[in-house]
Write a structure and sequence with these properties.
Structural class: mainly alpha
Shape: globular
Distance between the termini: 19 Å
Order of helices and strands: HHHHHHHHHHHHHHH
Strand content: under 5%
C-alpha cells in the first residue's frame, strides 16, 4: 500500500532489548551468577565507551561548529528544557507511582542525545547531516560530564531522590569518561580500524547494552520489580513519555520559527534535540545507582526510547516525502 512506507519499522535492537527483559524476568541471574554478570557488564561498559571515544571524529565536530545558534538551541533543549519537564513531571506524579520510577522519569530527561539514530534520521529527512554529526557528538561528549552533575544537583533534593550518592560521580569518571578519553586519544592509531569495521563492532556495541540490561533487570527481578510495577504503571509511563516528547517537539517547532531556521537546520534541532540516548543512559544508571535500583530506573528510559524511535522514524519519512 502507498502509505506503508510511512509506517515506522521496528528496530531489531528494540526486539532484542525486550527479549533481554523477558529472559531476565524468567531466568534472572542470582547470587554468584548475578555478581558475575554485573562484573561482566562493567567490563562491557568500559569497552563500549572506549569504542565511542575512538569513533568520535574531531574533524566532523570542527566542520559543523560554525552553526553555533543551532547547537546552542539543541543543547538548550537537551540540558535545560528536558530537565525542566522532568522536574515538573516528577513533582506531578510523586506519590502516584513508585519513587524509583519517578527517579527514572527524571533521569531520562537528564541524558544526552543519541548519536547514530539522530544522524540517521536527519539524513533520511534530508537535513543538515554535517551539523547533526557535530550537534549529536557535542551532546554526548558534554553528557558524560553534565548528566552526573545534573543527577547530583536535581536528584538529591526534591521528591525524585532515592538514594543517589555523590561518590557515584567519581564512578562515572572512572568507568565512562576515562575509557572514552583513552579511546579518543588512541583514535589516530585505531580510528581507521574502527571506521572500517563498524559492522563487525556493532555486535560489541549493542551486545554491551543487552548485557547491562539483562544484569540490571535480573537484580530488579530478584528485588521484586514485577510486584511493584504493573500494567497501569507501564501505561502511565508511556503516557508521560508521550507528553514529554510532544511538548519538546512543539517547543522546538516554535523555537525554530522564532529563530527563522532554515528547514535543514530545523530537522537537526528536531531529531538531535528530541532524542535521549539508551546507549549512554543504561551504563550511566549502572554507575550512578545501586544494582537493585537500576532496572526500575532505566524502565522509563526504555519506554521513552522505543516511543521516540517510532515517532521520529514516522516524522522523518514524512519530511523526506515533503522534500521531493
Amino acid at each position: 500500500m502507498p502509505f506503508a512506507r510511512f509506517i515506522p519499522k521496528i528496530d531489531p535492537f528494540l526486539v532484542w532489548l525486550t527479549l533481554a527483559v523477558v529472559v531476565a524476568s524468567l531466568l534472572p541471574a542470582r547470587g554468584a551468577a548475578g555478581d558475575l554478570f554485573w562484573l561482566l557488564s562493567k567490563v562491557a561498559i568500559v569497552l563500549l565507551f572506549f569504542l565511542h571515544g575512538a569513533k568520535l571524529s574531531r574533524e566532523a565536530i570542527l566542520q559543523g561548529l560554525g552553526n553555533w545558534r543551532l547547537h546552542l538551541a539543541t543543547l538548550g533543549t537537551t540540558y535545560a528544557l528536558f530537565p525542566a519537564l522532568g522536574l515538573a513531571t516528577a513533582w506531578l506524579v510523586s506519590g502516584w507511582i513508585d519513587p524509583l520510577l519517578v527517579s527514572g522519569l527524571l533521569f531520562l530527561t537528564l541524558l544526552s542525545s543519541t548519536v547514530q539514530s539522530s544522524i540517521a534520521l536527519v539524513s533520511v529527512a534530508r537535513g543538515n547531516v554535517a551539523a547533526a554529526v557535530c550537534s549529536a557528538s557535542l551532546s554526548n561528549l558534554l553528557g558524560i560530564l553534565l548528566t552526573p552533575l545534573l543527577v547530583g544537583l536535581l536528584m538529591t533534593t526534591g521528591k525524585a531522590h532515592d538514594g543517589f550518592d555523590w561518590q557515584a560521580v567519581e564512578t562515572v569518571t572512572v568507568q565512562l569518561l576515562l575509557p572514552f578519553v583513552a579511546g579518543h586519544v588512541l583514535r589516530p592509531w585505531i580510528g581507521g580500524f574502527v571506521e572500517r569495521n563498524k559492522k563487525l563492532l556493532m555486535p560489541v556495541d549493542r551486545g554491551s547494552i543487552l548485557l547491562v540490561v539483562y544484569s540490571a533487570f535480573s537484580a530488579a527481578v530478584v528485588g521484586g520489580i514485577w510486584s511493584r510495577v504493573d500494567a497501569p504503571d507501564l501505561a502511565v509511563l508511556l503516557a508521560l513519555s508521550a507528553a514529554i516528547l510532544g511538548v519538546v517537539m512543539l517547543t522546538m517547532f516554535a523555537l525554530s520559527r522564532a529563530m527563522a531556521m532554515p528547514r535543514k537546520d530545523f530537522i537537526v534541532l528536531l531529531f538531535c534535540g528530541s532524542q535521549k540516548s539508551l546507549v549512554t543512559g543504561v551504563p550511566m544508571a549502572g554507575a550512578l545507582f545501586a544494582p537493585a535500583q537500576v532496572g526500575m530506573v532505566v524502565l522509563p528510559l526504555m519506554i521513552f526510547h522505543q516511543l521516540q524511535m517510532f515517532v521520529c522514524a514516522w516524522i522523518a519519512a514524512r519530511l523526506a516525502r515533503d522534500a521531493h
